[in-house]
Write a structure and sequence with these properties.
The structure holds two protein chains of two kinds.
Chain A: H1 7-21, H2 30-43, H3 49-55, H4 59-68, H5 80-93, E1 99-103, H6 110-121, E2 128-134, H7 137-145, E3 147-148, H8 153-163, E4 173-176, E5 179-182, E6 190-194, E7 205-210, H9 219-232, E8 233-241, E9 255-259, E10 264-267
Parallel strand pairs in A: 1-2, 1-7, 2-6, 7-8
Antiparallel strand pairs in A: 3-5, 4-5, 8-10, 9-10
Helix pairs in contact in A: 5-8
Chain B: E1 8-13, H1 17-27, E2 36-40, H2 50-57, E3 61-63, E4 75-78, E5 84-87, E6 93-96, H3 108-119, E7 123-127, H4 136-144, E8 148-152, H5 161-169, E9 174-176, H6 178-188
Parallel strand pairs in B: 1-2, 1-7, 2-4, 3-4, 7-8, 8-9
Antiparallel strand pairs in B: 5-6
Helix pairs in contact in B: 1-2, 1-6, 3-4, 4-5
Classes of the chains: A alpha/beta, B alpha/beta.
Amino acid sequence: MALGFNISELRVLSEQLSEKLNLPFKHMTHSFFKRRLSQFIEMHGIRKVDSLMEQLDNEEFADEFCHFFSVKTTELFRDAGFWRHLRKIISEYYSGSNFKVWFPDVSSGEELYSLMILLKELNSHTRATVIINNTSEIGCNKIIEGQLSSKKMDVNAYNYKRFEGSHSLEDYFENSEDGLKFDISLLEKITVKKAGIEVMPDERCDLIIMRNSMLYFTRDYHQVVKEIVDKSLVSGGYLCLGVKEQLASPYDNRFECIDVKEKIYNKFKFLRD
Amino acid sequence: MIRPKYKAVVIGGSAGSFSVVSKLLSQLREDFPLPVIICLHRLKHVRSGLVESIRLKSKLEVIEPNDKEQITAGKVYLAPSNYHMFVEYDGTFSLSTEKPLNHSRPSIDHTLTSAAYVYRNKLIGIVLTGANKDGAKGMKDIADKKGVTIIQDPKTCEMDTMPKSVARLIKPDKVLSPEEISKYLNQLAI
């Protein structure tokens, strides 16, 4: 059990995992890494670190491990105020043009589906190129399959009502054996990359949605990610963080926070791309 | 200057705890030398209102921290709605959207347990009135690390399930009324 590890043992293990799986385990916050590791180890009845490392040589097992570290519990239209503001931005600035959206770390489908519903209701879904990164094969497949648990549908419907959507949320889902299935016709043009947060899209994007992705990483790593985000966003583009996240001060001269409550940032237009 | 014996106070509460927390903060000394970390069960969709209400009577500054915010002595930190709040070894908070624990996000157990691992025997843990068992496991972790454990006297609780759940797992160091808790903290933190 991870509870038996001391701080330095956990640090060594996180470095080994980073090297083995090419993902930033060593940059995860201590409490998060310890918690997830201990849950995974308990779930699989693993008693020794050596045994874990050995099992990680198996590709499927390694993929499951990476998938487990991705926090999947969110809601459709979580923070409805954010989605209302995003709708306003898209309808004001991108309604007549093609535009690109990047999700550097989509853990589960809800944020993506929320965006696609928003775009569909603005009739902008065909003009948007959407790229998503997810760290595991399992995660990528689940998102594209559109499966959603029906358990959270009450919360989702309530959020959608607060978002003031123009349809009924049920219009975008059909019943399936495993719960609900999202209208996958809205996902046809999505580019899904099995990749970590550091793998940038080929071209700069107009909008980057990265809400609550950085919560699980250290402050030092935030700087790395912010540079990646800055490089991947066009001047004048928008960056969306979680409502309790913030950009560090060195970025004050590159971004303006246009919504303090919902943490929406606008990259200054005069900056050279 | 005398250094306080403890490094932090962590408080959990649910049904009926708002008025207890308000009163407690109004009675803490203005120069209270420790951070006060509070996790209350709250409505997930209502992001504003609670911290503003708690601020009204508090002599100390009350903040809903952002992710990775530094923990500072003499400030009160309230777990934001719909996020778990953890204490990290580097003296910051980490927030999380992981699944609810004990049907709660923020979960008191998560906050208390993380604080127990960081502050160990320099932590004062308090569980107030509430209607479920969230906080009991966290208080056990504080007790295991030799921190001080206090529960609100069940006789003074609007709902006594929460402090009684703690008492079923451990023998708390103190069972106190809200007035006694603030008095005790004012003396203990010196």
